[in-house]
Amino acid sequence: MVPLEQEKNIEVLRQYSILATREVELLRKVIADVQAQNAEGLQAWLHHDLRDQLSRIQKKFYGFGREGLKGKDSRPVGHAGQQLKLHGKRAQEEGEQGSASEKKQPLEQVAVSHALDYEMSKDDLEVESKIREMEAGHKAWRKINKFYQESVEITVTERVYTKVIHRQHKYRLKDEHNKTGKEVIITAPGPVKLKAGCQYSVDFALAVVSDKYEYHLPLERQRRKMEAAGLNIDVKTLYSQCQAVAEHMESVIERIRQDIMNDFCAVHIDESPWLILGEEKKGQMWAMSNRVGSYYQYEPTRSGAVAEEMLNGYRGAVLTDALAAYNRLKDLEGVRKGLCWAHVRREFYERMDDFPAAEIMVRMIDELFDLEAKPETFEDLRSLRKTESKEVIHRMQAWLLEQSPKYLPGDGITKAINYAASHWPDLTTFLRDLSLPLSNNDAERALRHVILGRKNFAGSKTINGADVATALYTVIETTKKVGLQPKDYMKYVITERWHGRIPKTPLEFSLDKFGRNSKTIFPAKDAWQI
Questions:
Q1: How many angstroms separate the Cα of 98 from the Cα of each of 264, 272, 423, 522?
Q2: Most buried of the four, 108, 156, 188, 293, by CB within 10 Å?
Q3: CA-CA distance, 11 to 500, in Å (whole number)?
């Protein structure tokens, strides 16, 4: 049976709608019967709980994207020129405007491909002479050398597919130098290929990979664009190019995971649904990330055992959301668990309309985040967390204790208060652990491109396809974090492997290219205690 999310048959969807409508009517009758029986307690629960759920759904689907407060300046749209908090500082050298990455040139610095000259024809000059009532015609005019009116125009050259013939010349060893008694013939080296005998270039394959996994363009849509440009190719062939690139990237995947785990900053973990087309149950795309990279893994389950497997061999802090599956991480030797304050803020923010007191907690959480943005060194942050941050936490705790008795168990704000109170030990781990930031936003950003891809091409046809996606997402998103262009780095990996060399990880490559960040000094791995 095809999952409802993938169903395209109008008649089947129509039947689903009829059944759903009948079910809604049945539920309405049940609620009406309960109300008629004057079941006060149940009615109160239904009233408060349903109202809370409806309010949060309205915020989610019809509210503004930015969870800002009135009278408080929100951050500007975009990220250019913004100051990164300490835990987000890049490993490579950074300039005044951020990372010394391979950024695209601004419009005024785009190289001039060619200049076009426009001259007046004899007929044009004849017309000008007639306008001025001159009988000499075109002979009355002389072009002024090196004097013209110039304007600049940005244009686009459409992608063109061409067939290149590679001729690898042969060389025979001269008889006077041949001591083997046999004919010796050698061949000039050919181009780097994805695989020996592959008829598609590395650049072609990387264009397909980039369009799908960096810019979320499904392979079928790419095929149609290629067909319009004169290249007939099937989706299966395009997928084989992605698979071949992913096989090369496997050589650095595990070392990217190690780079993430070896960094001082805590590891962020999160997960998001990922479909295997034709299967009823959704799998999960897991992400493990921090400032030096993003590592992805597909699994058919949401069990915390997956996070435990991803963290195999890790010693350090881990930041997650409140999913119960992550509680098992507390039992891992050497692992310190923190919880995301952005999730706590959302619990209160979504209930401010119904419970204005919730804004007090939101503003205290914002105060905590504002404090984190002040320090320029980790030593300053260490000192600030011992004093100012701890004072804000004490105020929050007192407010939670004061407000809890004021509301009914079914009230939305009670749920928010209970959410914060029940996770208080994990929420306050950052006061003892310098390597922990306040939010798990790094992992959520790591999953943003996965989610965009899922919306555009639904998921993967097979588990093998999901594994290809994890390998390519890992490399693409990691290269972005360390200031490299994904296609350039992937071509470097393929070239190195073609010549039998071991490629560097994106972090290693970036540090060699740009140098280590000299403006922000990170503590030693074991210097996390506050």
A1: 20, 30, 35, 17
A2: 293
A3: 56
Identify residue 30 by its one-letter amino acid code. Answer: V
Cβ burial, residue 472 (10 Å; 0-12/13-18/19+) = buried
pTM for the model: 0.83
Instruction: For residue 466, tell me if it sits in a domain.
Output: yes
- Stretches in the chain below the pLDDT threshold 50: 42-43, 76-81, 96-98
Of 294, 214, 251, 260, whose CA–CA distance to 504 is shortest?
251
User: Hey, what are 523's tokens?
Assistant: 């503590």
Strands (E), 308-381: 316-320, 335-339
Distance in Å from the first CA to the final CA of the chain:
55
Per the structure, the complete domain to which residue 232 belongs is given by 1-25+201-340+440-530
Torsion of CA 42, 46, 48, 52, to 10 degrees: 150
Residue 83 domain-assigned (yes or no): no
Give the three-class secondary structure for 272: strand
d(CA 63, CA 332): 40
The residue type of 414 is T
Q: Is residue 114 part of a domain?
A: no
User: Is 320 inside a domain boundary?
Assistant: yes
C-alpha to C-alpha distance for 38 and 17, rounded to whole angstroms:
32
How many domains is the chain built from? 1
What per-residue confidence (pLDDT) applies to 77?
46
